[in-house]
Write a structure and sequence with these properties.
alpha/beta; Formyltransferase family protein; Rossmann fold; Formyl_transf_N_sf; globular; single chain; Formyl_transf_N; 19% strand
């Protein structure tokens, strides 16, 4: 299997897959992290954009031994060649679908702003849209009324890892699913919505929704815009 993503959550998933005996043929990681000690250099590749992944599409297909590509904390959009590679593309998304498509720090911020009592990480198939593919599973968790964004993001990291670990074996042996089209009102929370949040300082939940805490260093642009 191939992994594409960035950050600690990516390498946590890679370590789990290897420990469970699954083949990890290649990890395409972003610039924020480097492979952990002991990880074979030829099993990792640094990428900086979706265009970089497009150039690797042929290699991804050739190197993948089980036909699975996992997107874990992945900042890059898959483009035409990767989408048409014949690999089964799966993403762990930081938010329940379709209501909270978009960037995890922004989806979680708006969940707090909206007073949601629960939130979730979602495992779904990848299609040409953004977080629009059929859903395989959801890992849901409660949100306390006094929770701040840091709390929700912490729980979301654990939920994302659980969505991966709880379904890895079933995806690998072909028994996961059936995939379903999620119901509910669609919503999207991307970069523009994150910038719009900075103009909502009069909202009674604004301070809760923008308190990144220990995640401020990981999302410096959001911290600067909301601070």
């Amino acid at each position: 299997m191939i992994f594409v993503g960035d950050g600690a959550l990516l390498w946590r998933a890679v370590r789990h897959a290897r420990a469970d005996g699954h083949p990890v043929d290649l990890v395409c990681h972003g610039p924020r992290t480097t492979p952990p000690p002991g990880f074979a250099p030829d099993a990792a590749r640094a990428v900086h954009s979706g265009h970089d992944l497009e150039e690797l599409a042929g290699e991804l297909t050739a190197r993948c031994t089980d036909g699975l590509l996992w997107s874990i904390d992945n900042p890059f959009l898959f483009r035409e060649k990767v989408l048409a590679s014949g690999l089964r593309l799966l993403n762990v998304h930081g938010g329940p679908l379709p209501s909270y498509r978009g960037l995890p720090p922004v989806t979680a911020a708006y969940a707090v702003l909206h007073g949601e009592t629960s939130f979730a990480a979602t495992l779904h198939e990848i299609d040409a849209g953004i977080d629009t593919g059929p859903v395989l599973a959801e890992a849901r968790f409660p949100v306390d009324p006094d929770a701040v964004l840091e709390d929700v993001l912490s729980d979301l990291v654990e939920a994302a890892h659980r969505a991966f670990t709880d379904n890895l074996a079933a995806v690998a042996d072909g028994t996961a699913g059936p995939a379903r089209t999620p119901g509910g009102d669609p919503g999207y929370y991307g970069l523009a919505e994150g910038l719009e949040l900075a103009g909502m300082r009069d909202h009674p939940r604004y301070d809760q929704a923008t308190d990144l805490g220990m995640f401020a260093d990981y999302y410096p642009d959001a911290a600067a815009a909301w601070g």
